[in-house]
Predict the 3D structure of the following.
Amino acid sequence: FDEEMRDFATAMDSLVSEFVHKAQSEVEKSLEPAMRSGASKSASCATSTASSWGSKENGLRYPSYQAAVRRAGEYYSKAKGLINFNRSLYDPMEEKFSAAKCCSS
């Protein structure tokens, strides 16, 4: 039994190693470039996105802004509905990533 278990473990080590290699290769080939591109887009949009939260036209009133900041960027306002700073900053990256993921299949 012990010998069979050692043989099984050796065979599994080989399969796991092959799987990890293929998974890393796939991530480097398709996922990583999409994530870098999306992160770049999010970074380029971040300043204008954050500035919009305080704009006079469509921005947040100070108490709503302050409440969102105190709650790690997420707050439900009766006047504005759900305020989610994190999602607003992440959306451009997700759009870029999702388009790349859908089109690469």
In short: The longest strand covers residues 74-77. DSSP finds three helices and two strands in the chain. Helices lie at 2-52, 62-70, 85-103.
